[in-house]
Amino acid sequence: MIKASELREMSDEQLQLTLEDTREVLFRRRIQAQTERLDAPSELRKNRRLIARIKTIQRQRDMAAEAQSLAAQSLAAQSLAAPTVATPPLATPSLATQSTE
What we know:
The protein is an all-alpha fold. Helices cover 68% and strands 0% of the residues. The chain has helices at residues 4-9, 12-35, 42-80. The chain starts with a helix and ends in a 21-residue tail after the last helix. The model has no long low-confidence stretch (mean pLDDT 86).
């Protein structure tokens, strides 16, 4: 069984190949479970969980890439926006300059 940390170290292509292989193995195990007795029925669960782990890591990578691209777009939009001119604060007369009558 492959650990999640090992899956995270794989490239996207390796993850996709592992996913396809695991799906194929799960398919064969399901057919085998229907036609004859399995030596290790727990293999079905292990394969389903491995598929879930791989899909989770792929989704995390997709979300991280999307967030990074949105941040880059936001930064680019801010740099292209018209510069704002700072306006000085309104002058309020100080108490010392006011005359008292």
